[in-house]
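Listing S7. Sequence submitted for prediction.
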Amino acid sequence: MESGPAIFAGTAFALFGAALLVWTGVRVLHRAPVAQGVNPAAAATLTAIFGAVFLAAGVWCFSRV
């Protein structure tokens, strides 16, 4: 019973992190801005870092099941 919230949180974090990484990669490949009005290198770097952090949080939640 206690594994239900961990599975839900792990799925939410992993999906969000993966989607953020894919979205960032597509924007960078098409040379489109990742964030409006921000240095493109900084925006892509920070977005990729946060995507990886959310993906790692999802994996961590799944390891607690």
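Caption to Listing S7: primary sequence and predicted structure tokens for the chain studied. The mean pLDDT is 94. The first helix runs from residue 3 to 29.
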